[in-house]
Amino acid sequence: MSTGNDTNSQAVVPPGEFMGHPKALWQLSNVEMWERFSFYGMRALLAVYVATTFFGHLGAVANAEASLVYGGYTALVYATGIIGGYIADHVLGYQRSILLGAIIMSAGLFVLLIEDLTWFLVGLSLIVAGNGLFKPNISTMIGKLYKPGDVRRDSGFTVFYMSINLGAFIAPFITATWIATQFGMKWGFFAAAIGMVLSTLFLEVAKKSLGPVGRPAEGKEGWGMFFLVGLGALAMAVGVYFLLSESTILGFLLVGIMLGLMTYFIVSGIKSGDKVQLHRYIAMLILFFANACFWALFEQAGSSLNFFAREFVTPVFGGMEAWQAGGFGIFQSLNPLYILLFAPAFAALWPWLDKRGVNPSIPRKFALGLIQVALGFLVLVWAIANFQNAAGLVPWIFLAFCYLLHTTGELCLSPIGLSMVTKLAAEKETGMAMGGWFLSIAMAQYVAGIIAAIASGGTSDGHGPVVGATITQYSDTYWMLFLIGLGFGIVYLVVAPLINKLMHGVK
Question: What is the structure's pLDDT at 369?
Fold first, then answer.
């Protein structure tokens, strides 16, 4: 996400083409694929590894503590992109911002190999700081490869999007299903670190094809600022470490920033004297809430659903020992696989429905996303109630179906939401609005960690020691999530006409 100055009016098209697109597109897609390999390869193991390695001595509450760490980490991953976008726009340029971010993330991933909680949190903090410089800016770079009005731009982003999901699909097979089961979870992180190193190396290879695209502004070409920003990123990592250690403070901080951002947009709309723009900002903020609700439910994937898969789902392959050692991570490949399979169909579906006058409005698509993620949890509740085997395990096909419904819900909401932000925000505030969109996801990640802690954190009957979370505890929590998702989905269906009115013709 760029925070401004994100136009191509001064961009120079990079040299060389391959398959009808700039060569740099394919090279940056390769860079992103390996970065996503790293991220999702680590994500497949993170919560379970933290629970077993650092909180195992706490017994039943180990999963809960690990879920809070996971939620804090993923929240901060999304929150720091605003800073990284600003630095790329105004200080380093995109190429150097991405390079610096890649170096810091690589270092953080190697630090994860140290089996000490303090050092592990240091590693996560470095990854967060590096991701803020890397993730928003490589997407912006793709847009800068094309001149304004170039019809190839959308298909170029499609190629880039597919590379993201290809990396996410492959990673769990290697880091969790293979390496973790054979050598231990820690070495799954090592594989993720190697993926990030490859991403960094491929970025250097891409420089020639990029040419002037994304280079520092005139007068800022020196490397002094690069090292100065690097020191700033390390300082930010210190702050991230503190917030990971004090999750309650992180929650208050996220809420405070979001309230400040909401106030900013309302005041901006009032000051503009443009009643239409004020109404559009109100609509945008209402949809931000729906976005946060969706991702709080969806992001059980890396935490409580991972614990549930490990403890209460029949192995897809092999025995229980290999399954619990890392085989459960295979479910983390399902979402990117489903996206690769169904994203083209959804992209074609909306124009097809529009031609027939039945294309759902943006608020109704958000509602459909919420209802589908809710139904995913209902599938698990139904499976737990009716299909447990003698060992108390649920057939894996039900969890696979849950992920399918979550993915189709994502395809109704996520790409639509990104487009919505660019349409509803005033041109001069689009970057800020996009920052708000990702901030709502950051808040959702934090809440997701709390929910996961409730689902997987163990229980006490008041007479004996705390015991591990039972399958009934998962069922009760997932039933609650079903009701929440369904309830908000219905509410957004009902109020959709009002939100549409506030949007003043934006579709």
Answer: 96
Alpha-carbon span 309 to 332, nearest angstrom:
10
User: Cβ distance 482 to 373 under 8 Å?
Assistant: no
Question: Is 94 in contact with 88 (CB distance < 8 Å)?
Answer: yes
CATH fold, domain 248-507, is Growth Hormone; Chain: A; (1.20.1250)
Report pLDDT digits (tens) over 184-194.
999 999 999 99
* Span 47-84, pLDDT tens digits: 999 999 999 887 778 888 999 999 999 999 988 877 88
> Could you give the count of Cα atoms lying within 13 Å of 49 in the half-sphere of its Cβ?
29
- Count the Cβ atoms, other than its own, within 10 Å of residue 459: 13
From the CB of residue 445, how many other CB atoms can be counted at a distance below 10 Å? Answer: 27
Least confident among 34-38, 147-151, 383-387, 491-495: 147-151
Residue type present at position 84: G
CA distance 44 to 333: 9
H helix count then E strand count, the chain = 19, 2
In tens, the pLDDT along 222-245 reads 778 888 889 999 999 999 999 998
Q: Answer whether residue 19 shows pLDDT above 80.
A: no
Exposed/middle/buried for residue 491 (C-beta within 10 Å: 0-12, 13-18, 19+):
middle
Check whether 13 has a pLDDT greater than 80: no
CB–CB of 499/287 below 8 Å?
Answer: yes
- In order of 2, 85, 208, 230, the CA distances from 89 in angstroms are 7, 6, 21, 16
Highest mean pLDDT among 71-85, 386-400, 449-463: 386-400
CA-wise closest residue to 75 among 131, 4, 139, 141: 131
CA distance between the termini of the chain:
22
For residues 294-321, one letter each, b for 16 or more C-beta atoms within 10 angstroms of the residue's C-beta and e for the rest, the string is bbbbbbbbbbbbbbbbbbbbbbbeeeee
Q: Which of 458, 210, 174 is nearest to 327 (CA)?
A: 174
Q: Does the reported pTM lie above 0.85?
A: yes
CATH assignment of 20-245, among 1.20.1250.20, 3.30.230.70, 1.20.1260.10, 3.40.50.300: 1.20.1250.20
H/E segment holding residue 401: helix 396-424
Assign 488 to helix, strand or coil.
Answer: helix
Lowest mean pLDDT among 115-129, 201-215, 294-308: 201-215
Residues forming CATH 1.20.1250.20 domain(s) in the chain: 20-245, 248-507
User: How many residues make up the chain in this entry?
Assistant: 507
